[in-house]
């Protein structure tokens, strides 16, 4: 099972058998007659208007007096004294101590602090409970009494009227899966909506992975549907698990669906996922599935409609699959089956919409007047066949900025351009006025680029990434940079369009003593899962970078005796 690299989440939960399991099998909650999620149902009091969790009014949640009740002499206390009073409050001290337990993974000490707090009548808030539940639901907490204690704490939280949040439900769901009850985990996720708590991807993990581990494919699909209805998008870990359980359950249509969802959202897969794909193609059932005769015209229409690289008409052909790990040659021809991969087109309208979204984001994070001024300048001097991330090129081989290196690259790009127009060089203003820029030759170079309208100096305090990316996208040109574009700024751009654009437009560089800087143009084919018109599959992995190390692909083909008919 893939391990999600976020926070403290691992879908693979394993626990040792304990006497508590036999009790839970008969009664999932031996210490209370209610199911755990019922602890958070509205509790009726003498007055029907005072339900703890009324859907018609705001709940009257218990909160810490130390945080909400100001001492009578607050006005006379200095800010420093007030802060010290809050910091030294029992609730604050307990929070700090529990946080330290969380860092160390020390469940026993956390439980001791919890019991001590109850004896001293210290009021716990949602953060206190969440730390305790996290410790009970992870690592050593899922062994021995950790599960039982976790549910007792979860129950107490409801009794005390502390409002649960997403982290609460997620930890409780992990507790449920730790005792082999993914159904309870799913019930907890479904319960979140009634509390106005939107589930996250990690909220579904315990239920989805739990059902998949048990081979309960239909229940896993039910969780998947619920995710979609909640606007939660499955990522590689979830799709890989669904693919695996579909293979195990011999559900060929679902395997096909998951392959295409991986193609659309993941593109290149990790080693664990490619292993799951291999298992499918090597299975006896996979050899039996597929159309012996198919409508080639319909398949062709599917390819055209989808933009190339897939048709979506189902498994084509019958018989055993030949499955090998392979590399592509420079033109995208498979070295195993000889099939040529295609370059999947990008809709020009998508590019235009992406450029507009990029401009909006940049205007929000930069001084708006500065970026608008750049857009006006670009309108006057553009478009450009290529845009250069000047700082990235000038510093690629050494610490000191190398203008000679930058000039060489700019001249290469000009020679490669059909229009023979200079590429646009984006440099921060400090790079154009200080340091090496003061050298007479470099001054002359910068001035010539400036006169030609091929240099833009970004203002002080700006992030030049926004400028060179927007220039390349809006110009529909190439972008020269070795920046992997993976930091927070680029995560804002999403995972749908941006990876496809980058693959088709980014020029990368390698440096060596013998050859100097070598430019690597975008590949003439798309590095994404591809399904051919003959029913063959090629799956790119994350192994290799297509620069110094060739990328590894999985090639799955049937025997050449394929049949197709026109109807």
Automatic annotation (TrEMBL):
Gene3D superfamilies registered for this protein in UniProt: 3.40.50.11980, Tetratricopeptide repeat domain
Residues in PPR repeats: 165-199
UniProt keyword terms in alphabetical order: Hydrolase, Magnesium, Metal-binding, Mitochondrion, Nuclease, Repeat, Transit peptide, tRNA processing, Zinc
Keyword ATP-binding annotated: no
Needed cofactors: Mg(2+)
Keyword Magnesium among UniProt keywords: yes
Enzyme class, broadest EC rank: hydrolase
Protein EC: 3.1.26.5
Residue ranges occupied by any PROP1-like PPR domain in the UniProt entry: 83-288
Family (UniProt): Belongs to the PPR family. P subfamily.
Protein name, entry field: ribonuclease P
């Amino acid at each position: 099972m893939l391990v999600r690299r976020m926070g403290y989440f691992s879908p693979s939960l394993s626990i040792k058998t304990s006497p508590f399991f036999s009790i839970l099998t008969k009664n999932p909650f031996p210490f209370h007659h209610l199911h755990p999620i019922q602890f958070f149902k509205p509790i009726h009091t003498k007055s029907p208007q005072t339900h703890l969790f009324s859907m018609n009014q705001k709940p009257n949640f218990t909160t810490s007096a130390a945080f909400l009740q100001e001492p009578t002499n607050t006005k006379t206390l200095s800010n420093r004294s007030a802060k010290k009073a809050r910091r030294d409050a029992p609730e604050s001290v307990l929070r700090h101590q529990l946080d330290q337990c969380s860092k160390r993974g020390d469940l026993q000490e956390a439980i001791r602090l919890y019991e001590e707090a109850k004896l001293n009548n210290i009021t716990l808030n949602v953060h206190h409970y969440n730390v305790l539940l996290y410790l009970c639901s992870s690592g050593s907490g899922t062994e021995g009494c950790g599960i039982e204690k976790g549910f007792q704490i979860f129950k107490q939280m409801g009794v005390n009227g502390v409002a649960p949040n997403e982290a609460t439900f997620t930890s409780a769901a992990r507790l449920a899966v730790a005792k082999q009850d993914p159904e309870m985990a799913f019930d907890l996720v479904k319960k979140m909506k009634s509390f106005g708590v939107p589930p996250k991807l990690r909220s579904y993990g315990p239920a989805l992975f739990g059902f998949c581990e048990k081979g309960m494919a239909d229940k896993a699909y039910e969780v998947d549907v619920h995710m979609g209805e909640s606007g939660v998008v499955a990522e590689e870990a979830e799709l890989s698990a669904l693919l695996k359980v579909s293979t195990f359950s011999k559900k060929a249509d679902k395997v096909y669906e998951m392959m295409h969802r991986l193609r659309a959202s993941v593109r290149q897969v990790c080693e664990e996922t490619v292993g799951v794909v291999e298992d499918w193609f090597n299975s006896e059932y996979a050899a039996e599935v597929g159309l012996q005769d198919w409508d080639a015209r319909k398949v062709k229409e599917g390819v055209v409609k989808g933009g190339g690289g897939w048709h979506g008409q189902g498994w084509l052909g019958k018989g055993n699959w030949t499955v090998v790990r392979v590399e592509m040659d420079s033109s995208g021809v498979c070295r195993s089956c000889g099939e040529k991969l295609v370059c999947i087109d990008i809709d020009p309208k998508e590019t235009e919409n992406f450029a507009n979204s990029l401009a909006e984001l940049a205007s929000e994070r930069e001084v708006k007047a500065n970026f608008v001024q750049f857009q006006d300048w670009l309108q006057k001097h553009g478009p450009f066949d290529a845009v250069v991330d000047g700082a990235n090129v000038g510093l690629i081989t050494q610490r000191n900025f190398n203008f000679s290196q930058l000039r060489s690259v700019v001249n290469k790009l000009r020679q490669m351009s059909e229009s023979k127009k200079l590429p646009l060089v984006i440099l921060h203003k400090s790079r154009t006025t200080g340091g090496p820029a003061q050298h007479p030759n470099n001054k002359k170079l910068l001035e010539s680029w400036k006169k030609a309208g091929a240099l833009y100096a970004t203002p002080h305090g700006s992030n030049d990434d926004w400028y060179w990316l927007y220039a390349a996208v809006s110009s529909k040109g190439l972008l020269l940079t070795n920046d992997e574009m993976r930091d927070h700024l680029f995560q804002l751009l999403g995972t749908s369009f941006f990876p496809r654009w980058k693959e088709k437009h980014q020029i990368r560089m390698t440096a060596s003593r013998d050859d100097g800087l070598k430019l690597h143009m975008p590949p003439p084919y798309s590095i994404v899962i591809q399904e051919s018109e003959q029913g063959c599959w090629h799956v790119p992995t994350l192994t290799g970078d297509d620069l110094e190390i060739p990328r590894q692909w999985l090639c799955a083909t049937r025997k050449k005796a394929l049949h197709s008919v026109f109807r």
